Amino acid sequence: MSRNRGDDDDPFDSCVLIGTPLVDLLPEDAKFSVKPKRPEEQIVTDEKGRQRFHGAFTGGFSAGYFNTVGSKEGWAPSTFKSSRGEKAEKKTTYRPEDFMDEDDFNEHGIAPRGLQIKSDYKDQYNQKDTSLAPRHNKSDFILDSLIRPVQSTIGVRMLRKMGWREGQGIGPKIKRKLRKMKTKINFEPGRKIYGVALPPESESDQEENEDLEDDYFVSTFDINDFQFEIKEDFFGLGYKRLDVGNLFGKSDTNSLVNESPAASLLFPMGANTTKKKGITGQSFGVGEYEDEDDIDVYKQDNMDLYDFELNGSQQRDTKKLLNKTYGFGAFEDDVQILKKFSISKKKLEPSKVFEAPQVPPNFNLMHKFTRKSRFDEPSTNENSKEDSMSSYLKSSFSSRSELLGEKPIQPDSVFDLMSAKDREFLQKQKTTAETVQEKPKNLEEEKQKKEKRYETFVSNSKKNLPNPYSLVDSNGLTEWEKEKEKDEFENRYKENLKKIELLTKNSRFVSKATLNENNQEIVKDLKDSEDLKKEDKTTITFSKVYDREEPTEIHKAALEKKYGKLTRTEYEWRPNPTVCKRFNVPNPYQDTKEYGTVKSESDKKKSSQFSLLNIMTAQSRFEKEKSRSLFDEINEEVPLKQGPSHVKTVTLSSSEKSSEETVNKIEFESNRIEEQKQKSDFFERIDDSQNKISEEFQVNQLKENVYLQERPEFDMFKAIFEDDDEEPAENEEEKLEEEDEVHKITSETIDETQVDKTTIVSSSIPNIDVQKVSRFLNEDKDIEIVKEVKPIPESVKFNQIVKSLAKKEDSSTSSSDSSSSSTSSEGEYVYEEVSISKKKSHKKKEKSKKKKKHHKKKSKKSHKKK
Amino acid sequence: MSLQAKIDCGQGAIRAVRFNKDGNYCITCGADKSVKLWNPYKQLKLKTYTGHSQEVIDADCSSDHSFICTGSVDKSVFYIDVKTAQIIRKYRAHIGRVNCVRFNLEESNLILSGSIDGKVRIWDLRSKSYEPLQEIDDFKDSVTHIDLNNHQILVSCLDKRVRLYDVRFGNMKCDYIGYPVTCSTLSKDDQCILVSLLDNRILLIDKFTGEMLNEYKGHINKDYQVESCMNNSSSVVISGSEDGNVYLWDVVDGKIKQKLRHLNKRTVHSISYNPLEDKILSAQEQFIYLWDLKE
Q1: Is the ipTM of this complex over 0.85?
Q2: Mean pLDDT score, A767-784
Q3: Residues 6+ apart with CB under 8 A from A460
Q4: Do B210 and A565 touch (CB under 8 A)?
Q5: Are residues A568 and B142, on separate chains, in Cβ contact within 8 Å?
Q6: How confident is the model over A689-701, as a mean pLDDT?
Q7: Fewer Cβ atoms within 10 A, N terminus or C terminus of chain A?
């Protein structure tokens, strides 16, 4: 019977408790947590404190979510996700791992995944860990572990198979008694100690052993390898000096190491030693913190402990016994041999020891660095050897063969292999080549000849011959030279064409300064063109076709600040449909495909231009086709951009203007400056070619050309259309209808009214002769050829001739404002039209007659309408 | 009215200074072949765009601020990405130096470039072609300035004419001025054209009739291409001058309202009016000046 605790104060003092109280089985601490945890509280966390599913495989206390299967969200079935980018793999077979938890793969899980030591090697490690052998220092141990063999040695393996285990001694098992005795011998005071003493058996062990039967067979003690301690100090043998490093509990060397658990694994010894604090050592007393009280502090070193002669001690027999049983010399005598083993009669030959090679006396142990910094250049000394090697490798085959002492190979001449005929030919070639080389060349003569050849080349190429160089007289030149010259000529010709193109382009622009000075000639030196420099250092001078004088009336108005109607002109401008689109604006001209500024008729007259080159080039083409059909190839659209060089247009003063029309008159004027002798070869060549034109043909053609180039007098058109009283139609629709017919009629008239036309032309422009024009270009005479010009722009078809005629009177009021844009193609277009019409006319001569009549009627109609 | 900032752009002579479309930034074209993007209010250089082989004459910002187009003496027109400074396109078709470049207003999908070769070329930024979409070659001399509104293109030329191309109506109005025109701008109210002449004069011309409305004198403009513009309310005419001032005239009475004196007397040739606020940028030598016109 017992009373409750604290009975003095208890209100239930009077209560009597009957029975024996239950003994408190739980410890004091546990008493507070008697209350069972609710399932919500039973959260199991992993080692990192995270709430985890505690796998059933690891016998977790809480499986799933609060002891339920699944997660917080409930039991979530496995999801299947598959997208185009990431195709889900179809899983057909499941491995046990799929159902396992993270924990199971841990080190202690059922299927550990980490790297582990195989059981074979595990023991080795354990042995080392528990090894009793002292270490000289830690680095030894580390080194040891580094070079630990992967496989245990064959001896160890054999022993294992025979039932040996680590930690046991090797040798036949002995009776326990004997072992005991041995140990006693070992630890007998006064016994000499070799090397390091084995740890003494604990007393309790001894006691236990005593209890067991004595005739047990036990394995002998293992003896570790002898570890010889290196003597590093100068104290006497066996003297342990004071270890000051341990004074403060931690030795300096260990301070860092001990902190990490890994380090403690690495340095088990170190970890142990640091537990001891204070100064340790033989000559120092036991410190305050020293646990080892049993150390004999006042121990006197007994001289008996040391041997003074080999094998001279009293315990020789026991020592011999010990030797025989284990350790060194265990098998020295034949007494105890393992079963099935016999001592071999052959003594092992001592392994051969090779002497170290003799170091040459002048060998310098210290390595000398040739380069002080890696940025220094490698010394040549070192590389000299390599160089010699590489030079050897690079050396020619013959020199190497010489070095090797081979018989030099005599190379046979190629000529030996050739036939006699070929050899002769070659020899001939050689001599001719030499003579050619030797021949002193008259450079001037050569140059002239070459120029001549180039001229013929140019004329040939103008004829569009397939191979213009083939016709050039190139005698006395070798094939190679011919090839070279051909290339040279071609390049030169192309360049010249380009230059002329450039000139025409440039001629469109005037600097501001020159713009202000009206009618001043602009002379440009093309000094940069090297080619021209070479050729007699010609400087091409050309005047610009540019009407710099503003239309006077407008100009006047502008000067008087009367801006407005007078100064404003409106044109039709057709934007590119895409431009409209980009501007987010509907295309104002949806039905037409052409775009750009469409100039009104009056403007067209203004912008009239006449290019002499047009005529000339056209002529050369006429000539070209003389042999064939005359107009066949004119249709070929060849961009003739040869601008109006050498031509200067000047608008005539108002007094000179013809009564009815404003006429752009072209004044051909020579550039008097230097042209007589210095002319670009291009023009010369054109001239040359022109000279060759047969006169008769030329005259005829020219007349035609001129006719077409000119804007015929109004009367003439009247005559053609035979509309004496009425003006030509202005109505657009009418025009469209008539377009074809007009086309044909004009062509027809060309054929039919050949005689008339020429007379007309001659009457209107008495002196026009393009031949003269060309001649003038050659001779540079100041001939003024006044001409009426009517160019027809590309975009405008023939029907606009009619239109222009109608507007002719308007134009008379507006002064001539020739635009600078020299579209040489305008003139060309005329030719083409002519050619087409000519062809057609030949075919449709008869038809056209009828149509002509028809047209007359039509035109009459239209005028009546008006 | 005050000088707010003076920035040394460090790119040689400034050929042009341009506000971007919201007036928060500006670009400068330098004689050192570079274009620089600035925040003029903070005097911050934001980026440098290089790539031209000769000095850059004019530049423009696209309406979404993400691209720049530049025209240079090297005859090329560049289309540059503002952020990365990458040259997206290089257009080379002009025969001479490019005097002026401009984006179309609404979507900035065209570049119009005027050149000394007397042509205005329109480049399509949408297509892959490097050929101009359209060439306007009515000019008989160097094209000096292009201005645009939503459907009209105003081109000034040294051939003494100002041409107004109307994309919507498909016509071109050519006004003969009588003196080489260095700059022509459309007023913000879209009623007038401001024309700078190489005659120390600026004319205000009615866009619809071509009549002269007013004339502004007092500044010097004889030799250089000096830009002029009107303020956002079309009440003030502003022009640079060759005597180191920016002149401001009252539109109606034509009297000089104000002179913005620069530090030295060299030509102030490029000005740019902030599209939203009353601020002007002017360029003189290697400096750009930011003026606040608020009183």
Answers
A1: yes
A2: 44
A3: A468, A469, A471, A472
A4: yes
A5: no
A6: 47
A7: N
3-state secondary structure A372-402: CCCCCCCCHHHHHHHHHHHHHHHCCHHHHHH
Task: Determine the Cα–Cα distance for residues B73 and B286; give it in Å rounded to an integer.
Answer: 18
Classify residue A281: in a domain, yes or no.
no
Q: Provide the shortest C-alpha distance from residue A770 to chain B (in Å).
A: 29
The pTM (predicted TM-score) of the whole model is 0.38
Domain membership of residue A39 as a residue range: 35-67
Residue of A nearest to B213 (CA): A563
To the nearest whole angstrom, how far is the Cα of B116 from the nearest Cα of chain A?
A: 8
CA-based nearest residue in chain A for residue B122: A579
Does a structural domain hold residue A742? Answer: no
Chain-chain contact of B137 with A821 (C-beta, under 8 angstroms): yes
Q: What is the rounded CA–CA span in Å between residue A720 and residue A413? A: 87
Query: Chain B contact for A589, CB < 8 A?
Result: yes
For residue B134, the cross-strand partners are B122
Structure tokens given for A56? 């059933």
Residue with tokens 């008769």: A696
pLDDT band at A776 (very low <50, low <70, confident <90, very high): very low
**Domain count for chain A:** 3
Q: Would you say residue A84 lies in a domain?
A: no
User: Which residue in chain A has the smallest CA separation from B166?
Assistant: A573
CA distance A582 to chain B (A): 7
**Residue B208 at interface with chain A, using a CB cutoff of 8 Å:** no
Average pLDDT over residues A342-370: 82
Residue A239 binned pLDDT confidence (cut-offs 50, 70, 90): confident
Q: What does the pLDDT read at residue A811?
A: 44
CB spacing of A582 vs B215 below 8 angstroms: no
Lowest mean pLDDT among A237-251, A278-292, B18-32, B257-271: A278-292
Averaged pLDDT for residues A794-821: 44
Q: Calculate how close chain B gets to A817, using CA atoms only, in Å.
A: 12
Rounded CA gap, A566 and A39, in Å?
104
Q: DSSP letter string over A623-668?
A: HHTSSS-TTTGGGS--------TT-EE-PPPGGGS-SS-----EE-
What are the φ and ψ backbone dihedral angles of B251, each rounded to 5 degrees? -65, -40
Residue B31 touches partner A, C-beta closer than 8 Å: no
- Where is average pLDDT lowest: A332-341, A664-673, A708-717, B159-168? A664-673
Q: Which residues of B touch A571 (CB under 8 A)?
A: 138, 171-174
Residues B103, B114 contacting (CB under 8 angstroms): no
Q: What is the rounded end-to-end Cα distance, in angstroms, of chain A?
A: 150
* Long-range pairs for B28-37: beta carbons < 8 A, 24 or more residues apart: B28/B283, B28/B288, B29/B55, B29/B56, B29/B57, B29/B58, B29/B59, B29/B70, B30/B55, B30/B56, B30/B286, B31/B55, B33/B72, B35/B59, B35/B68, B35/B70, B35/B80, B36/B9, B36/B11, B37/B68, B37/B82
Give the Cα separation of B34 and A306 in Å (integer): 97
Tokens standing for residue A22: 């239950």
Tell me which chain B residues have a C-beta less than 8 angstroms from the C-beta of A565. 209-210
Nearest residue in A to B135, CA atom: A596
Q: How many CA atoms lie within 13 A of A538 on its CB side?
A: 18
Nearest to A790 by CA among A552, A635, A605: A605
* CA–CA min distance A649, chain B (Å): 16
Given CB atoms, is B23 within the 8 Å cutoff of chain A? no
Determine, yes or no, domain membership for A480.
yes
Tokens of A816: 């001539």
Question: Which single residue is written with the structure tokens 């000089």?
Answer: B256
The CATH number, out of the four listed (1.10.8.80, 3.40.1380.10, 2.30.180.10, 2.130.10.10), of the domain defined by the range B2-292: 2.130.10.10
Instruction: Provide the percentage of residues in chain A whose pLDDT is more than 90.
Output: 0
